[in-house]
Design a protein that fits this description.
The complex is a heterodimer. Chain A is 72% helix and 3% strand. Chain A is an all-alpha fold. Chain A has one domain: ABC transporter involved in vitamin B12 uptake, BtuC. Chain B is globular. Classes of the chains: A mainly alpha, B alpha/beta.
């Protein structure tokens, strides 16, 4: 029981972190029609910047400064990069963001080195928040939940209640119409791209010391975020939210489940005893294949519901 | 924006051309459209009518030539700047914001023009005046009973009416309508014509239209475009009597 509750909480923390990344990615996709491969790289930059800034100014200033720097970087990428490549079509844009991944990866390695950074949870948040059935729930995870929930609320309010939100929604579906109503659509594109990068940066700040800040972190996070976006339905924020939480919970649960598939088959009266390949596969504990589950789920959803949970397009 | 001197055409197109790769779509079109004129552009499919609209409204850059709006050159400007100078257009494919309510659609169309400019960030509920304008338009378009319905759920004719409303909402003096009555029944067409006549009063109207009834009822001047060139332009009677037009376009329809 205690495992269920703690895992659920941890899954929620991880899911919210995923959502912070995936929401920006899905917004950028629905606006520009391009999957930004470099999104997880911005997440990594956020973590590294947070580490460096927190060494000088402390964690809380870093919490604000690093995401803003990431947002500015995003704006620069959009204005000086993507906008110029845009005329050459989607493939060119995809290749451009794909190239960015490598540049950022190398850049990070050259600046901060190959080893993991000593980016730690701030001392003031380094205590157990509460104890359930003898298991501790660290205060920092509570803090992460708070930040991501606040960010979710802020983004929602911005999109639904403000004029810029109204125009973003308009430009998401019909950029041509929005611009012929006098709205500066290229600027809206820049704002959305920068906003997405700001969110990714913030995720990096609070995720960098939750996981580890090392040059491989973008590579580790990128595929999962793509899975979330595809699973939730490209371009759908609500679907993206559900998918993030589901993936977060599934991944944390998979790690703690000590059963293998064969244990699920036993109650059904099926017993496999023969010493063959199938038996071997079936006896692998779920914990060991946990990392595969999101991808398996993505393949399933692509087979049976290609538009994703709440997606509107069939591509 | 300066008030145009009398005699300056509201829209002046000088020798514009447009090629996509090797293919010339617009091959030297010149047109002067006087302020307050209702101008219809007709022509067979593929004549370049919609392309013309896309060039005027800044969606595509022109290959050569010049375009003036109230005497000011606009052919190098992005679409939103051209709109802010007083030219608004609708699209052939209905381009309302489907998921937003009818009211929000109109608000979106009003936002820029009502002087809010870059005070982008203040919340929507504070704009009493903006809302009042949107309510007024709702009445005018006869859509007030649909106020909070997602625009995507309106009937086709209502969607087109909303789009016309959004096109004129910003107060532009030159209105470009791309096939405003396409796909409508006779009753719907009559209603749409009435609406267009009402909301474009005192404005310059340029429209692409296939329905000859609409064209001859509504337009003061008709321009016939064939393969990217103007073959005739003038009052309806003259154009109707023009043998080249009958040959190229009307003839095929009348038979």
């Amino acid at each position: 029981m205690e495992i269920v509750l703690i895992s659920l909480l941890n899954g929620l923390v991880y899911g919210m972190l995923l959502f912070m990344l995936a929401s920006g990615l899905t917004l950028i996709f629905s606006m520009m029609g391009v999957l930004n491969f470099a999104h997880a790289s911005i997440y990594m930059i956020g973590a590294y910047l947070a580490f460096t800034v927190s060494q000088v100014l402390g964690f809380f200033p870093a919490l604000i400064i690093a995401p803003i720097l990431c947002g500015l970087l995003g704006a620069a990428i959009e204005i000086y990069g993507l906008r110029r490549v845009h005329h050459n079509g989607h493939i060119a844009e995809l290749l451009f963001t794909f190239g960015l991944v490598f540049i950022i990866q190398r850049g990070v390695q050259m600046t901060w080195g190959m080893l993991p950074m000593a980016y730690r949870v701030p001392a003031i948040l380094d205590f157990p928040l509460f104890t359930v059935y003898g298991a501790n729930f660290p205060a920092y995870r509570g803090f992460m939940l708070l930040i991501s929930a606040g960010m979710l609320l802020a983004t929602w309010l911005l999109l639904k209640k403000t004029r810029i939100g109204l125009i973003i929604q308009a430009a998401l579906t019909h950029p041509q119409m929005a611009s012929s109503l006098g709205h500066n659509v290229p600027m809206v594109f820049t704002i959305v791209f920068a906003g997405g990068c700001l969110l990714a940066g913030l995720a990096g700040v609070i995720g960098g010391n939750y996981q580890t800040t090392e040059p491989g972190m973008a590579e580790a996070m990128g595929p999962i975020v793509f899975v979330v976006v595809v699973f939730g339905g490209l371009g759908s924020l609500a679907g993206c939210f559900i998918a993030s939480i589901v993936m977060g919970v599934i991944q944390t649960f998979a790690v703690v489940i000590d059963y293998s598939f064969i244990d699920f088959l036993k109650p059904l009266g099926i017993s496999v005893t023969a010493d063959n390949l199938l038996t071997e596969i079936l006896t692998v504990p779920v914990a060991r294949i946990g990392a595969l589950l999101p991808f398996a789920m993505m393949i399933l959803i692509l087979l049976f519901r290609p538009r994703g949970l709440l997606g509107t397009r069939d591509t | 924006m300066s008030i145009p001197a009398s005699g300056t055409p509201a829209l002046s197109i000088r020798e514009i051309t447009k090629s996509f790769g090797q293919t010339a779509i617009i091959r030297g079109v010149s047109l002067d459209i006087a302020a307050g004129e209702r101008h219809a552009i007709i022509g067979p499919n593929g004549a370049g009518k919609t392309t013309c609209f896309n060039l005027i409204s800044g969606r595509f850059p022109i290959s050569s030539g010049e375009i003036y709006l109230n005497g000011e050159r606009i052919d190098q400007l992005p679409p939103h700047k051209i709109n802010r100078m007083g030219l608004s257009r609708s699209f052939q494919i209905t381009s309302i914001f489907q998921r937003m309510s009818v009211f929000e659609n109109l608000r979106c169309a009003l936002l820029w023009s009502r002087g809010y400019r870059y005070s982008f960030w203040s919340p929507l509920w504070m704009q009493r005046e903006l809302n009042a304008q949107a309510e007024f338009l709702l009445e005018d378009l006869n859509l007030h009973t649909r106020r909070d319905l997602p625009a995507g759920l309106l009937s086709y004719a209502e969607q087109r009416a909303l789009e016309i409303g959004m096109t004129i909402a910003g107060g532009a003096s030159v209105i470009l309508l791309d096939e405003p009555t396409a796909g409508m029944s006779n009753t719907e067409t009559d209603y749409a014509m009435d609406l267009i006549r009402r909301v474009t009063k005192g404005k310059t109207l340029v429209m692409v239209e296939h329905d000859m009834k609409v064209v001859f009822d509504l337009a003061d001047v008709i321009t016939v475009l064939v393969y990217g060139q103007v073959i005739a332009s003038g009052p309806p009677e003259t154009v109707r009597a023009n043998p080249a037009v009958q040959e190229a376009y009307l003839g095929a329809l009348v038979e």
